[in-house]
Specification:
The protein has 105 residues and is α/β, with parallel strands linked by helices. The protein is 34% helix and 33% strand. It has helices spanning 26-36, 56-71, 83-91; strands spanning 2-9, 12-21, 43-54, 75-79. Strands 1-2-3-4 form a four-stranded mixed beta sheet, sandwiched between helices. β1 and β2 form a beta hairpin. α1 runs parallel beside α2. The longest helix has 16 residues, at 56-71. It is globular and about 30 Å long. The N and C termini lie far apart (28 Å).
């Protein structure tokens, strides 16, 4: 199960996720992102700090998000705390496409 919410903060659109981004939740994540993404925001942040697991289909969903954001000439970032999730993103090479940021940005 994955819970998703979004908030607006100046020129940043934040997507906050809680749970697992996997085969059971990726479709809801894709639909939620697509339905709430607004290209007028210069920066998109996907907050995965409360995500405890991400599978290959979850990575694919993040890649789709990045593709959509970059096609609009905007920037996308990830916030990640869980070491396992961070390692999966790093080892897959996705951190080059979806860079990590800290809270202060």
């Amino acid at each position: 199960m994955l819970y998703i919410n979004h908030t607006l903060q100046e020129k940043t659109l934040n997507f906050d996720c809680d749970g697992s981004l996997d085969i059971e939740s990726f479709e809801n994540f894709d639909k939620y992102f697509t339905g709430n993404y607004d290209k007028s925001f210069e920066r998109i942040v996907i907050n995965l700090k409360k995500v405890n697991y991400i599978s290959s289909v979850g990575l694919r969903s993040l890649l789709r998000c990045a593709k959509q954001v970059y096609s609009d000439k905007n920037k996308i970032f990830l916030k990640v705390e869980n070491e396992m999730v961070k390692n999966i993103i790093t080892l897959s090479g996705f951190c080059k496409i979806l860079p990590f940021i800290e809270d202060e940005l």
